[in-house]
Amino acid sequence: MPRSLVPPEFLVHRDEGRCTKCKACIRQCGFGVHAEGPDDRISANDQRCVNCQRCVVMCPTGALKITANKEIGRENAYWSAERLREIWRQAESGGAILTSMGCDRNYPVYFDHLLLNASQVTNPSIDPLREPMEIRTFLGRKPEKLSIAGPPGEERLAGPLPPEVRLEMPVMFAAMSFGSISKNTVLALAKAAKRMGIMFNTGEGGMNPALGPFRDHMIVQVASGRFGVDSAYLEAGRIIEIKIGQGAKPGIGGHLPGEKVNAEIARTRGIPTGADAISPAPHHDIYSIEDLRQLIYTLKEATDYQKPVAVKIAAVHNVAAIASGIVRAGADIVVLDGLRGGTGAAPKMIRDHIGLPVELAIAVVDRRLREEGLREQVSLVAGGGIRSSADLLKVICLGADAAYLGTAALLALGCHLCQRCYTGKCSWGIATQDPSLTKRVDPEAGADRLVNLLTAWQHELKEFMGAMGINALESMRGNRLQLRGVGLPQNELDQLGVKQAGEAM
Amino acid sequence: MVCGVEEMAERRADDHQSYEGKIRIPSGCAVAGFINKTGERVNGRTIAEMMALMKERSNGLGAGYAAYGIYPDYRRAYAFHLILADHQTREEVEAILARNFRITEGHEIPVRRTGRNKKAPLLWRYFCDPLRLDRDSALDELLLATTMRINRLAPRASVMSCGQNLGVFKGVGDPEEIAEFYRIDQYHGYSWIGHGRFPTNTPGWWGGAHPFSLGEIAVVHNGELSSYGTNKSVLENFGYELSLRTDTEVMAYAIHHLRRQNMSWPMVAKVLAPPHWAELERMAEPERELAAALRRIYGGLLMNGPFSIIVAFQGGLMALNDRLKLRALVAGTSGTGLYLASEEAAIRQVCPRVEEVWPLPGGEALICCAEEESACHVA
To answer: Per the CB < 8 Å rule, is A482 touching B263?
Structure first.
């Protein structure tokens, strides 16, 4: 085999003075970087290192350090080291480059160009420790008008309302299938969702029987592969989500390689062990909007109109018109997954060059639905790159009812964003099915970490709202006047529907 | 000396005029209102007196009044009170009105043009009958659409009010000045509301003074609506265009929208200032279910931020504070009369023998309707 021209991305440095040769690094690395040599010395194969930091964190003596390998040739501002590596890799492999997680390129991050408001003098700010601060929200279709019966003083609801799902805070865990992540990771998400009064999403991997106790907090996904979809599955969830697309790979299907399809995954997905699980790029029964309508109503019929149906799309250039069509097709919830949305596996070029930042997507869809008088009928969920409580609140001000967290949730569980989920070797035990690795995520301890993260965000969210003098989340949704743009040209401000910082109310 | 002072005052007034719509000055407002349950009609001097006492709470950048029952001879007509830049604009507005209404009478609202109000815009009044009505709700739609069409011309034109037997009189000035200017002592109404403005987030201009009115409701408001952005985005779904650059506009339209859906006043209040979720969960069924549904369906119309409002509607008044009670609002009764004001002193000023006085609790509406048989109800 000819010598590879691709230099290692990372360099592993071992402080021999500190190393006690305990071999923890060898055991911890899912990628086989560390090995014991014949001379008892432990050496590292830099070429294999993905900089997931597992060995660094676990090394009892702090003997390890990993650095980026920057000196790889005459890269320049145009031909970056990454571009050089890509070309060398493709020249050797002849294949599309795979990657994982969300787009990491230096496109504008609108969240970082938006500032929030606060009250001074004319409107008292509210101390969330002293006054109620309400961050509960609901997802599902709403009638334009509430039918009230009964004489004055004895009014009551005239009839049942469409099904709704209550969230104790405006976040949910995004769709991550058993298969792309480990069962323990799914369980940690499910437990945390239950404890926080929010929802998690099965992804398209079907429902593992272990999720039974968490059904009330479960969104079941129906994707193009229809894995594990039967009436029991549809009945099991509180919300049914039709996945049309995903921010990390708009227009692209999914492929879980046969070698990852072990007996349990096969059972959950309803396919033979070892068979490739292929999710086609389109749903082959949805070639247009009227077909989507049929699927939405098929799912509603199958569940006796007891569950809201969500439709998730990747944010693309025509997202406003598409979202309007989805609402008119009968969806109760529209999910927009932005450019930064993560994935277990995607072609790198697709991940990094297709789509729309979620900030813009939510802003333009919210505006379009308002113009058509549809916005109040449905819920809008934002996904793709929510990093903090500030991002969360900003996307709500831009028009979202709630947001999906994917990457942030995995980070809470130990993920270090090495972007190698597609290898199935995750040293942190998250994106792998290797039993020696998956046991590293303890569902209970993982749920604790997720609960901590969300509790912290709740505190911050309440402080933000209190500072603005607002004590109910429903007064934040679409409240663009609480946002101002910095460093954005006028046309971008116009698309976001936000005023320039310095402009008054 | 006297001459010099007047001159200075006039120059200051000119400055005010030239800054109108451009400056925004921070602080609060004064509101007042009263109704007599018997439907007895009262001269406008009383409300002017209540407002005058609370002069401290306004800064001369806006004041106004609304009264129900002032046009007994035209009680079935829709009285359009308009602020117009000039006669050319008036012709444009007349053309808009003529699309859906027959104008039975139109004239300038009688005013005293003195001092700085010499430069007041053209203020016109039309009594109109709708041309055709297909169904009950059509009239609401018609008034809404016509008002929105006219307000699109703002700041050249805006509708002060368009209800039956209802009139709004407002402008830039102190409450006393505006009362004097519109000669409100010439009108007799069974309910009155008044407002003195200390503009904060929005400019002081004629169309931005309170009361804000649409259809059967007129509202005066002290406070700041931090939920304005959300409220606006919700109302835009239903044909409302926010063009008057004052947060109170959303309050008026939200109430109009809810009333357009045949919602009772207590229900309207529950949308504007709903019970907290914790409180709601302690309620008994079916009240809880209804309150939860109201909050879920109309959550975007929750008015967040400090406010006290007085709403005048056909046959009654409603007073309401925000859920945390962040603005003053006091009620007082005397016989069949109900008085409301930002300050108790304003009530005692016009009703020295007031029987009971109490501050309104946060989020709990006080609704007072005139007795069924009384004169204020249109047959």
So the answer is: no
CA-wise closest residue to A431 among A443, A446, A418: A418
* Separation in Å, CA of B33 to nearest CA in chain A: 23
CB contact under 8 A, A477 and B277: no
- The number of distinct structural domains making up chain A is 2
**Contact residues, chain A, for B19 at CB < 8 Å:** none
Same domain, A71 and A180: no
* CATH code, domain carrying A259: 3.20.20.70
Q: Residue B364: which residues within 8 A CB-CB, separation 6 or more?
A: B269, B320, B321
**Is A133 inside a domain boundary?**
no
User: DSSP string covering B71-95, please?
Assistant: -GGGTTSEEEEEEESSHHHHHHHHH
Residue ending a domain, choose from A76, A95, A114: A95
Marked catalytic residue, from B29, B162, B351, B368 = B29
Cβ contacts from A onto B, under 8 A: 135
End residue of a domain, out of A45, A74, A95: A95
Residue A437, C-beta contacts closer than 8 angstroms, at least 6 positions apart:
A30, A182, A425, A426, A427, A428, A429
Closest-CA residue of A relative to B267 is A155
What does the DSSP assignment read for A52-68? --HHHHH-TT--EEEEE
Nearest to B58 by CA among B175, B216, B190: B175
Question: How far B348 CA lies from chain A's nearest CA (Å)?
Answer: 27
Q: Pick from B137, B260, B304 the residue to mutate for testing the A interface (most A CBs within 10 Å).
A: B304
Question: Rounded to an integer, what distance in angstroms lies between the CA atom of residue A440 and that of residue A438?
Answer: 5
Q: What is the domain extent for residue A185?
A: 169-472
Residue A285 belongs to some domain of the structure:
yes
Of B87, B89, B111, B91, nearest to B103 by C-alpha is: B91
Whether B29 is a known active-site residue: answer: yes
Q: What is the 3-state secondary structure (H, E, C) of A113-150?
A: HEEECCCCCCCCCCCCCCCCCECCEEECCCCCCCCEEC
Please answer whether residues B344 and B293 qualify as being in contact, where contact means their C-beta atoms are separated by less than 8 angstroms: no
Q: Would you say residue A195 lies in a domain?
A: yes
Question: Residue A18 belongs to a domain with what CATH number?
Answer: 3.30.70.20
Q: Which two tokens stand for residue A393?
A: 């609140």
Answer whether B202 touches A (CB < 8 Å).
yes
Q: Does B281 touch chain A (CB under 8 A)?
A: no
Do the beta carbons of residue A192 and residue A480 sit within 8 Å? Answer: no
Contact at CB, A476 and B233, closer than 8 angstroms: no
Parts of chain B belonging to CATH 3.60.20.10: 57-325+360-369
Block means of pLDDT (10 residues each) for chain A, 505 residues, are 89 96 97 93 95 98 96 90 95 96 97 96 91 96 91 89 97 95 97 98 92 97 94 96 96 85 91 91 93 97 97 98 98 98 95 98 98 97 97 98 98 98 96 96 98 98 97 97 97 98 88
- Reported ipTM: the value is 0.90
CB B223 within 8 A of CB B342: no
A279, A421: one domain: yes
One domain, residues A200 and A86: no
Interchain proximity B298–A138, CB inside 8 Å: no
Residues A307 and A397 grouped into a single domain: yes
Among residues B220, B258, B182, which one has the least CA distance to residue B340? B220
Asked if the structure places residue A116 within a domain, the reply is no
Q: Do A319 and A450 reside in the same domain of the chain?
A: yes
In CATH, what number does B57-325+360-369 get?
3.60.20.10
> Is 0.95 surpassed by the pTM of this model?
no
What mean pLDDT comes out for the span B157-178? 95
